[in-house]
């Protein structure tokens, strides 16, 4: 009697194919990281470990730290701003209110990153909307620098990440059993208490997954820090680009790519561990 | 009857052959935007002379280089229009054919800077030089030397390209009386410039945005972009410092492995034709490489436009492409590690 292959195996083929191609590309990156850079040529030399020793410079530690901080800040503020919108999106009683919120919250997802970043350049510039408004209100008498600062980069990244965060949070909020909230209210809890002690804990899985997704996504941000940061705020992808495509130093760019990959994987593993503990604590309490 | 069908067949075959020749196109890799429009000036004349259509592949300088490396041996394009020192990288990687100068007779009339070593020909030149918004700087402000960029008054006003720090490195070396190859002895000077840099631009578009919005009222600016902005009514002055301006050269090379070698040579020859040169330079506001090209007086008097050997000698800082290509990665790496952020 012959054993039949499970039906779902055929559906794995595309995923395996993509994984093989990805693994081959990563192997190439790994190979390049051990090859010598030859100035003035696109060709690489023989085996060397120098690319790895080069990374041991303050600038690269600062870039990594900046990447972590900017990614963390983006995930945090995106969460803070997206939660009320997601909540209103799910709980609004009128259909038209929900429709308007969906359009406002999700539409930016369909405009390109570059277009959105250019729009932010117009908003955050010295003569942009923010500075002009503040000056005309008399809050400031000369433009406040927002462009080419970490604050400017985070503002643009948060706006970029919000649609994704809103979708994830809205899904989590819609899964809440409303009877739990009603039970708490019947027992005398104020709407505020219900929100902080019932709703928020019940949406914690969504909050954590949204935070992790946005954090990981921002770790590889390129065009926003490139354009809004104007070379004064560098994230790891920008440095990879500068080394690979401006200096033509592909071996060192390969090392930086590996560092970025392992930094992202490491921080995701750490977050997974922390979120598992947090969820466990919430469940037991 | 038999002869009739043979005749019909012959006519059909001839028609197909003619069609296939007519449909054969020369593929030229060039930049997008108005750079492509400039290349189209050459293409128009080329098609007029040869009957062969030209098709463009557009992209950034370095993106196209990366693509050419991947497609080595089976090039996407027959001719590549690039910056001359990037052309040296094409050459060192075997991506450019050695040029047959007998097929480029117009090359005989070029300024020395037009000869880029036998694998590419300079078509036009521009300068990277300090430029400023006259309405945003104090009255009477002038940049007569690169040294002005180091002044305290320049603090947080300056914009530089992030993709190529060569201009400021070369200028600092020349200012210090050193050769660009000895740039390492001028790193203190370069570091002293850091407080004056407000932002780095990544492309022609961001360069223009930065100066248009006044974010960086002073820039080390590509002259062609400067003149483009002046045409749009922006009050910009392009300065040629006493030490000279750093010259960049747009050059054409033939991709190794092309099957249209003769047509590719003819394309370069057309690009160096005095009349075509004049049209390109009037269009881009750049300097011709052919001495015989006659440009308008209005264009000739602009800063950074060189039409005499004397101007090339006294106002232009020209570095050979091989040295440039070899030093640029070192400059870039040093700049990323010490000047940015």
Compile the SSE list and pairings.
The complex is a heterodimer of chains A (285) and B (341).
Chain A: H1 9-33, E1 35-37, E2 44-47, H2 50-54, H3 58-91, H4 95-106, H5 113-124, H6 129-136, H7 150-174, H8 178-186, H9 191-202, H10 204-219, H11 223-229, H12 236-246, H13 250-284
Antiparallel strand pairs in A: 1-2
Helix pairs in contact in A: 1-13, 3-4, 3-7, 3-10, 5-11, 7-10, 7-11, 8-9, 10-13, 12-13
Chain B: H1 2-23, E1 25-30, H2 34-50, E2 53-58, H3 61-70, E3 79-83, H4 84-92, E4 120-133, E5 158-161, H5 166-175, H6 187-191, E6 197-201, H7 204-212, E7 218-222, H8 223-231, E8 236-238, E9 245-254, H9 261-271, H10 274-284, E10 287-288, H11 297-300, H12 309-315, E11 316-317, H13 321-338
Parallel strand pairs in B: 1-2, 1-3, 5-6, 5-7, 9-11
Antiparallel strand pairs in B: 3-9, 4-7, 4-8, 4-9, 4-10
Helix pairs in contact in B: 2-9, 2-10, 4-13
Can you put this structure into words, describing what you see?
The complex is a heterodimer of chains A (285) and B (341). Chain A is mainly alpha-helical. Chain A has one domain (45-284): Orthogonal Bundle (MetI-like fold), CATH 1.10.3720. Helix content of chain A is 74%, strand content 2%. Chain A is built from 13 helices and two strands; from the N terminus they run αββαααααααααααα. A two-stranded antiparallel ribbon of chain A has the order 1-2. In chain A, helix 3 (58-91) runs parallel beside helix 7 (150-174), helix 3 (58-91) runs antiparallel to helix 10 (204-219) and helix 8 packs antiparallel against helix 9 (191-202). Chain B is an alpha/beta fold. Chain B folds into two domains: 27-125 and 248-315, D-Maltodextrin-Binding Protein, domain 2 (3-Layer(aba) Sandwich), CATH 3.40.190; 127-245 and 320-338, Periplasmic binding protein-like II (D-Maltodextrin-Binding Protein, domain 2). Helix content of chain B is 42%, strand content 18%. Chain B contains 13 helices and eleven strands. In chain B, strands 1, 2, 3, 4, 5, 6, 7, 8, 9, 10 and 11 form an eleven-stranded mixed beta sheet that branches. In chain B, strand 1 (25-30), helix 2 (34-50) and strand 2 form a beta-alpha-beta unit. The N and C termini of chain B lie far apart (84 Å). The A-B interface holds A 37, 39-43, 57, 59, 62-63, 66, 121, 125-127, 145, 147-148, 226-227, 230-234, 239, 242-243, 245-249, 252 and B 62-63, 65-66, 69, 88-89, 92-93, 156, 162-164, 198-202, 206, 209-210, 213-215, 322, 325-330, 332-333, 336-338, 340-341. Chain A: InterPro entries: MetI-like (IPR000515), MetI-like_sf (IPR035906). Chain A: This is Putative spermidine/putrescine transport system permease protein. Chain A: Residues 64-269 form the ABC transmembrane type-1 domain.
